[in-house]
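pasting for ref
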Amino acid sequence: YNAKYVDGMLTAALDTLTDAGAQEVELLRVPGAFEIPVIAAKLARRKRQRPEAIICLGVILRGKTTHADHVGQTVSHQLAGLAVETGVPVIHEVLLLENAAQARARCFTAKTNRGAEAAHTALAMAGLLKQMP
C-alpha cells in the first residue's frame, strides 16, 4: 500500500547504496506493511547468501480506526525481535504517519528522506558488524 511514497524512499535508498559502492542489492516487494516481517525473517535466516543488512521500507497512513496502529506496532515488534534473534541488522523504516503531507515530507524530500537514512544506517551497521570478532 502507499506505493508512491515507498517508491520515493526506495529510490533514495538505492541511490545511497549505489553511491556507497554496494555490490549486491536484492529487492523484494510485498503487498503491504504487515507482510514485511515474513520476508525479512526468511532473508535473515538464510543459510546461504545471508544479507549483511535488511532494509524494510513501508508507509502506513492512519485512518479513522486503530487498525494502522495495530499494524505498525506488530511490524515494529517483529522486526526488532528478528534483528536481535538473528544478528542481522534489520533497518526499520516502516513509517506510521498521520497524513499524506507527512508522507511527502519523509519520502520525497532529500533532506529528510527516510529511505536514504535507512541506507546509511544499513551501511553503518554492516560495517560495524564486520569489525566485530
